[in-house]
């Protein structure tokens, strides 16, 4: 996975089990969600806001074999922007030492521990993609057999010394990325330290849930559930309520933009992305998604500017060079597009679409031999793609190689017939 990552270290990390907590969120007597947490002081556990929000009861257990049970006394601090909450529990635990994310470098190993499927405690290894001490950072993890379940949310991200460098908040698989890997998003310790320093008087779960910002958070969660079902208009109504409750919480505008984009209302989506970025100027995904919406509106010049912002904030962001290259191509800047496709291939050397598009850009610049080489690479990766044969045939034809061109045209027709 990366330099310094080894099974012995992982085994030592996993031994920190007595410092962790398995959090079961209940509503109307039914267990609705599992999450993880860990002790930061003798009786304070950190977890995600979404792990305890919307619940009528939260049960917490820890220790070896989950035999130690705690009750939730209340919430002492929270940060909806970063999805973190500190909760006071009824008994003592062993706090984990908190380290510094800024000491880590790109590609260094980290480990995260928590409770995945069926409350099973486990640990996994990964490497840091882009450590940023004051904002969300990503960890590249080799895909486990059962994926990274939602139960790991709130779990600790640890360095080789067993010190906390982050808190797991979510996991995702990025389309067109390496299929054997997933990406875990984590909140850095600088945010956790600030939250601990702001920990105040205990507030009961029920009182805490009545806060406008928490009610807004709940509305966003309900809207997301509707979006997942494809009920975007219903989702928007929830996001509207969330924005009325807390107009400073950027996720309300961001999620509403996603729903509007799904409905094809790209102008309204761009407007909500604008507000999102005013509230959170370094929200990378919002720049990327706004660029997509602008492309749908035919505004490729503005899309290029947004993709450039994504690269400034996260040069490793998946598909950004490919997308910017495409937008440049639509503007007729084929030389600039080729440079972006070159960068995209450094990140994803087996992406057939990049070879195909770079071949097209070279063809437009009159570099027919270069285009053919890229179409050859695309053919090796996707031998059944009729478009590759067709475009290669066009490039070969421009070189005056009529027989070879006709052979590719014939193959393109055959492949096209097979797909019908």
Widest sheet: strand ordering: 1-2-3-6-5-4
Number of domains: 2
Strand content: 15-25%
Q: What is the CATH class designation of the largest domain?
A: Mainly Beta
Stretches where pLDDT is under 50 for at least 5 consecutive residues are 1-5
* Structural category: alpha+beta
Profile the largest sheet. 6 strands, antiparallel, barrel
Elements, N to C (H/E): HEEEHEEEEEEEEEHHHHHHHHHHHHHH
**Number of DSSP helices?**
16
**What is the count of β-strands?**
12
Question: How far do the termini sit from each other?
Answer: 42 Å
Rg (CA only): 25 Å
What name does the CATH topology of the largest domain carry?
A: Thrombin, subunit H
On the 0 to 100 scale, the average pLDDT is 87
Shape: elongated
Helix content: 40-55%
Q: Do you know the CATH architecture of the largest domain? A: Beta Barrel
Structure keywords:
alpha+beta, six-stranded antiparallel β-barrel, 420 residues, Thrombin, subunit H, 2 domains
Description of the structure:
The protein has 420 residues and is an alpha+beta fold. It has two domains: 1-200, Thrombin, subunit H; 320-419, Alpha Horseshoe (Serine Threonine Protein Phosphatase 5, Tetratricopeptide repeat), CATH 1.25.40. Helix content is 46%, strand content 21%. The protein contains 16 helices and twelve strands. It has helices at 7-14, 49-52, 189-197, 205-209, 212-228, 232-245, 250-262, 266-279, 284-296, 300-313, 320-330, 334-347, 352-364, 368-381, 386-398, 402-419; strands at residues 20-27, 30-39, 44-47, 57-62, 68-79, 84-89, 109-115, 121-128, 137-142, 156-158, 164-172, 181-188. Strands 1-2-3-6-5-4 form a six-stranded antiparallel beta barrel. The chain has a six-stranded antiparallel barrel with strand order 7-8-9-12-11-10. Strand 5 and strand 6 (84-89) form a beta hairpin. Helix 5 (212-228) packs parallel to helix 7 (250-262) and helix 8 (266-279) runs antiparallel to helix 9 (284-296).
């Amino acid at each position: 996975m990366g330099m310094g990552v080894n099974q012995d270290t992982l085994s030592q990390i996993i031994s920190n089990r007595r410092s962790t907590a398995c959090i079961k969120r209940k509503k109307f007597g039914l267990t609705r969600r599992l999450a993880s947490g860990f002790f930061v002081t003798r009786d304070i556990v950190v977890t995600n806001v979404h792990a305890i929000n919307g619940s009528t009861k939260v049960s917490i257990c820890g220790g070896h074999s989950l035999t130690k049970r705690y009750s939730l006394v209340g919430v002492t601090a929270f940060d909806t922007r970063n999805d973190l909450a500190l909760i006071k529990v009824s008994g003592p635990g062993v706090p984990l030492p908190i380290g510094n994310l800024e000491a880590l470098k790109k590609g260094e190993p980290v480990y995260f521990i928590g409770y995945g499927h069926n409350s099973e405690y486990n640990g996994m290894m990964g490497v840091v993609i882009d450590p940023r001490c004051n904002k969300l950072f990503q960890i590249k993890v080799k895909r486990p057999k059962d994926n990274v379940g939602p139960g790991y949310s709130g779990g600790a991200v640890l360095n080789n010394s067993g010190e906390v460098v982050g808190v797991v908040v979510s996991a995702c698989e990025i389309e067109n990325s390496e299929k054997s890997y997933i990406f875990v998003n984590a909140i850095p310790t600088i945010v956790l330290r600030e939250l601990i320093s702001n920990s105040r008087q205990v507030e009961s779960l029920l009182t805490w849930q009545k806060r406008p910002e928490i009610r807004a958070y709940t509305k966003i969660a309900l809207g997301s559930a509707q979006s997942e079902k494809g009920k975007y208009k219903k989702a928007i109504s929830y996001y509207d309520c969330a924005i009325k409750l807390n107009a400073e919480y950027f996720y309300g505008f961001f999620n509403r933009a996603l729903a509007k984009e799904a409905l094809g209302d790209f102008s309204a989506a761009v407007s909500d992305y604008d507000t999102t970025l005013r509230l959170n100027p370094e929200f990378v995904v919002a720049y990327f998604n706004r660029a997509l919406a602008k492309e749908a509106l035919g505004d490729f010049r503005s899309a290029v500017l947004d993709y450039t912002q994504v690269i400034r904030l996260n040069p490793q962001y998946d598909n950004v060079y490919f997308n910017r290259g495409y937008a440049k191509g639509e503007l007729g800047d084929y030389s600039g597009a080729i440079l972006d496709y070159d960068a995209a291939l450094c990140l994803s050397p087996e992406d057939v679409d990049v070879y195909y598009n770079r071949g097209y850009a070279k063809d437009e610049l009159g570099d027919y031999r270069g285009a053919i080489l890229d179409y050859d690479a695309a053919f090796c990766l996707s031998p059944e793609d009729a478009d590759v044969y067709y475009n290669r045939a066009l490039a070969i034809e421009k070189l005056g190689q009529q027989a070879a061109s006709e052979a590719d045209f014939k193959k393109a027709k055959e492949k096209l017939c097979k797909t019908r």
